[in-house]
């Protein structure tokens, strides 16, 4: 096993949880950016306060769903496959929060973006958890 990975696996649970939450924030942000970029067919687009408010709402709802569903209490190496259903459910609620926050904040979130975001978020949030469970 690689030395950085073994050091990470041997670290305290609090540190692992901080890393997992940080990655989830990055994954939600990346998924939303990529969903908008795919929809608009461009990598550069203006971001205003309304879009940042929608992103913040989406991140908070996603993290709250993960906390409520126990995703940060579970040890990733021993996570069972039904936990993937929780990821699907949390991403579903997150995409609904994205659509509603885009509506209420009147931010530029095209109607197809929540669907694209949901697919990307499932891959970016669920994929690493499956890989960690598979290999370690």
TrEMBL record:
Membrane-traversing stretches: 21-40, 52-71, 83-109, 115-132
InterPro entries: Polysaccharide_Synthase-Rel (IPR051203)
Keywords: Membrane, Transmembrane, Transmembrane helix
PANTHER family referenced in this protein's UniProt entry, alphabetically: POLYSACCHARIDE BIOSYNTHESIS PROTEIN EPSC-RELATED (PTHR43318:SF1), UDP-N-ACETYLGLUCOSAMINE 4,6-DEHYDRATASE (PTHR43318)
Protein name per its UniProtKB record: Polysaccharide biosynthesis protein
């Amino acid at each position: 096993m690689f030395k950085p990975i073994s050091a990470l696996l041997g670290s305290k649970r609090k540190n692992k949880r901080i890393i997992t939450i940080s990655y989830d924030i990055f994954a939600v942000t990346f998924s939303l950016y990529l969903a908008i970029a795919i929809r608009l067919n461009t990598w550069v687009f203006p971001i205003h306060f309304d879009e940042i408010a929608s992103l913040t709402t989406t991140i908070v709802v996603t993290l709250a769903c993960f906390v409520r569903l126990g995703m940060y209490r579970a040890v990733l190496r021993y996570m069972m496959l039904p936990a993937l259903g929780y990821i699907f459910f949390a991403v579903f609620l997150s995409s609904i929060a994205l659509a509603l926050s885009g509506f209420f904040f009147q931010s530029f979130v095209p109607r197809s973006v929540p669907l694209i975001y949901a697919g990307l978020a499932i891959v970016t949030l669920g994929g690493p958890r499956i890989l960690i469970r598979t290999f370690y």
